[in-house]
Amino acid sequence: MTLRALYVDFNSYFASVEQQLRAELRGKPVAVLPVVAETTCCIAASYEAKAFGVKTGTRVSDARRMCPEIIFVEARAHLYIEYHHQLVKIVESCTHVEQTLSIDEMVCKLTGSQQKRENAIALARLIKKTIAEQIGEHVRSSIGIAPNTFLAKVASNMQKPDGCVVIEAHELPEKLYPLKLGSLNGIGRRMEERLNRHGIDSVQKLYSANRLQLRSAWGSVEGERFYDKLRGLELYEVKNDRSSLGHSHVLPPKLRTHMAALSVLHRLLQKACMRLRSYKLHTSVISARVKFLNRPTWVAESRCSATDDTLILTHALERLWQTYPKHKAIPYAVGISFTGLGNHEGRSLDLFEPDTIQSEKRNSALDNLNMRYGKNTVYFGGAHNALSYAPLRIAFNHIPDLDIENHGTKEK
Ligand SMILES: [Mg+2]
Prior knowledge:
Structural class: alpha+beta
Bound molecules: magnesium ion
CATH class of the domain at 244-405: Alpha Beta
Mean pLDDT: 83
CATH architecture of the domain at 244-405: 2-Layer Sandwich
Oligomer: single chain
CATH superfamily of the domain at 244-405: DNA polymerase, Y-family, little finger domain
Largest sheet: 5 strands, mixed
Order of helices and strands: EHEEHHEHEEHEHEHHHHEHEEHEEHHH
Number of strands: 13
Helix content: 25-40%
Distance between the termini: 48 Å
Radius of gyration: 23 Å
């Protein structure tokens, strides 16, 4: 089995950016706080602070007790986001970035000769070297290389900071045995307790369980998917297996306003609707979220009759937006997700409404045009401002056809 995924995880990301920018913080225990106040918690800790046991979520008073020398700095969200965009660009200059998974994580797909161990390691070195040259040597990353994204992420966690770990198929499963169950992505505290109840209390036991045992431990087909992921299979989201579908996006500096956030949400919604239809699914729950660094995330959810119609869901988003908070906090990431998914057969009634037939025609025309001429050809008005920004992959790789951009039909 070849190496197919290279996972880049930045170490102590917010704290490293601060150390890169402020020489006086280098080599020192640093904790980043959303606001400087005794009542708050650390949102990031430098490696020097981690050595004292300080981590994300540690309260300020506890952090000071664990490490009296600790330096608290106030978060500067805009800088972390700018660095995020620069880092994506740098990695993209070394190899294609398949997906950015969070502000400090991204995954690249290895193809052709990159799949050879020595070439994949050389690529990881090139990424680190280019970051050191263009950003600085204090923003470090741990890179994991493996047959699939799941194992590449596991590998990236095995050596921190500044690591590079390869997991090859022939090293499975033994190479994972020293890990704790909870260190595998997808096994949170509650899942771990569940697995314990099924007699699984180590990675070794997890590996010895068969597909059906994992299905019953998870209580869903997710257990079988986990079985495959552990064995290096790259799983693509399979049509009716999904429980949710969505997109999220870290906002570039220009779009960190209330209105731009809404535009990006519209764009993400339209993209998600197109995927929904390509899987022949309907959604009955739409949720929107906006993250702020210094404020709790805004999440709003609404239920509707099962639909895959962009216009209906656009109206649902507009209604959700009316509950968007009035405060002036700066949004830095947005997301849309659809849950309550079902297939066409499961849907009743609405299908025979004349409006539904009309909207199906409109949606399929929309999808055909977008597939033929590029993702931005036809869109609903709300996304207009966000067209060239969301998602990142489009921003960096989509070269719009100017003729179509200028003269194409615009639905509204
Ligand atoms: Mg990280």
